[in-house]
């Protein structure tokens, strides 16, 4: 790595075990993808609600030459759905698990191991945007059957996520996420 790892804690006390865990996980990322040039990790404890602590948010920004920074961040609700008692250790592990998965995908893409962009054409379906939350990096689309599917900003392969509006048509492939069915490989239908 060309730039030392940058770790910052906001609204939460720094701890030696957390910094050590983060540095070890960053070292794992470097072994997985050797072209990482920088890594910034932010741990943020948001306010408490109803007397209970909201799980911390771990945001990872990974610098890779030739592309925009790879950013991994999750909302506290994700941890609350996944774990009965979410804590800092689980938040760190979950953020780095997602980063590892994204780096493996990028590595495979660069090595030409991924399928061609339209190889999923037989599996793709047409849906419409039901709701978009650009500030939170996700949205929902309504399928032809009338059900709602979650999709993330990173799932949009073709088109501008920030320009999406209610009723816009999207092609997507249905996949399975951590909490159930989701829309993956989302492409905005071009206006013919």
UniProtKB/TrEMBL annotation:
Q: Which residues form a coiled coil?
A: none
What is the superkingdom listed in this entry's lineage? Bacteria
Q: Name one Pfam family in it.
A: Ribosomal_S30AE
The protein's name in its UniProt record: HPF/RaiA family ribosome-associated protein
